[in-house]
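hi support,

uploading two proteins for the ticket. first:
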Amino acid sequence: MFEEFVKTLSLIGSGEQTVWNIAQKIDVPITRFRMITSKLLDLKYVRYEAHCFKYYLTVKGENVLQCINGGGNDRGVTPYILARP
């Protein structure tokens, strides 16, 4: 699931924001896609604008990607802990 979180966050961060673009690129069943995006919304890593069907990274989501790309953070916590609720 962590890999799906990272892939989804990366796609949103790289400009693939529309629901259908993200769902198509991560290639998972729609129920799993809904579960992933729901969890990311709950964790406040992304926000969703219903009028245009787009997801955007929040500051928390940007920090997660930076942490993953950097291999850790300034407290020595691995990025894997960030995907937990």
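and the second one:
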Amino acid sequence: MTTLTSSSQIFANQQSGLGTVGGFFKFNDGTLYGITNNHVIANANKCHIGDPVYLFDDDQTMIGTLVHWVTLDATKVNFLDIALFQVADGINFSWLLPTGTGMPVLLEPPTPNDQVYMVLPDGSKRTGKITNPAIGFNTSFNLCGTDFSFTGLIEIQSNDTKPFAEHGNSGSLIFNSNHNIIGVMLGTNFTLTRGYAVPFKNGTTGIESVYNLSITGSVAMPQDDQA
């Protein structure tokens, strides 16, 4: 039976490219969803409700269907790049987290200078520091061949010389020093010196402003806590 974890690599089609399932959530109706970016599974608005989402593995296993996304607008400044897929029946799912952290229990706002991390598909971590909890300037990302402008994002500086995020990390959840969730990875700037994430809590423009989600699931087999 197929096992899907947070930080699993996923894709919708060749136009959307490779991304990551951040984690698992439910609405009030109890339906199970995985969260990621619009540009990972909705191809920047070009996909349709019910389109398949695949696990990036040898078999390209279908693990769910696209059901919700926030529309991206190339003519305006955007706040959110987010999408949800309904996890298919028969798919085992769990959170892949570093040893000893346990399940995240809260969605928290970003805090200036807080240490944060992102869990990679092998269970290791990329670490960084919040340099700006909600940018007040516009920054552009090329998503599925179109340039989109964003503001209000969490800005993150890597703790070493490597970029905080690389190709394929889009959709990953960002955890704070309390091991709770603050955002969903979007991308990096052109110089690769800063990473940017969509916040869950940011007044009227965070993910919570459009989706009332609750964290669900269990932790996968413990992984080595690598830096």
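thanks. also noticed: Residues 38-41 form the longest helix (4 residues).
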